[in-house]
Amino acid sequence: MFVSPADAHSLSYKFTIDPQPRDDQPWCEVQGEVDQKVFLSYDCGTAKIKYMSPLGEEVKSMNAWETQTVTLRDTGDLLQEQMPDVTPEKLIKVGSGPLTLQARMTCWREDNGHTNASWEFGFNGHLCLLFDSENGHWTVVHPGGRRMKEKWENDRAVTDFFKKVSMGDYRAWLQAFLVCWEKMLKTSASLTMGPSTVQPKTPAIKHITWILPVVLTSFTITVFLG
Fold first, then answer.
1. Counting beta carbons within 10 angstroms of the beta carbon of residue 201, is it exposed (0 to 12), middle (13 to 18) or buried (19 or more)?
2. What is the pTM of this model?
3. pLDDT at residue number 88
4. How is 169-185 classified by DSSP, letter by letter?
5. Could you give the CA distance from residue 15 to residue 33 in angstroms, rounded to a whole number?
6. What topology does CATH give the domain 9-190?
7. Most CB atoms within 10 A, among 21, 135, 197, 210?
């Protein structure tokens, strides 16, 4: 499995393709994450977007956002079209219903500025196949991914699509999103580390002990004059 370093900034999109969705379920749903934090959910069929965090609200005003939604929809369409040819028949059990296809694209920027990307593919939550976008290498990690690998490894158009969107489009979005993301993190940190508005306890105690004799003196004078 391709795992981005813990300290590396990352952008990830998880696609879930359901060949026979229920009436209230989308046939393609995409979940977007920046640094493992969900910021949006996208329905490929209705093109409806749910913004799940302040970052989602921020990026929707970016110039690249309209292009991004088109790419997400195109990716969902491609996965749906390819699904009948790559679904492993042996994984389908009688009475279990149709399999759902999951695909996760992740790109990350390392400390040295280098950006890498990878794809993960599986069925019903089981990881089956990996694709290294940088070198174009396919790796089967479960027998259910063999048919998928044979089909896509020999299909230049599909391979080029996965490589192009992950190393081109998604990488550009990662750089753009990080401008907003890092700004938000710095703002949050400055608020957390800012000067405290609570007065220290020691000066407060001294203030009380200083004012107490004044109160007592005023009280004594009042009694005496009465």
1. exposed
2. 0.75
3. 85
4. IHHHHHHHHHHHHHHHH
5. 12
6. 3.30.500
7. 21
**169 Cβ contact list (under 8 Å, min separation 6):** 67, 68, 71
Tell me the percentage of the chain whose pLDDT exceeds 90. 38
HEC per residue, 81-122? HHHHHHCCHHHCCCCCCCCCEEEEEEEEECCCCCEEEEEEEE
**146: enclosing H helix or E strand:** helix 146-153
The residues spanned by each domain of the chain are 9-190
H/E element, 12: strand 9-17
Angle at which helix 146-153 crosses helix 156-164, to 10 degrees, equals 90
Residue that is written with structure tokens 């994984």 in the block: 91
Percent of the chain with pLDDT over 70: 72
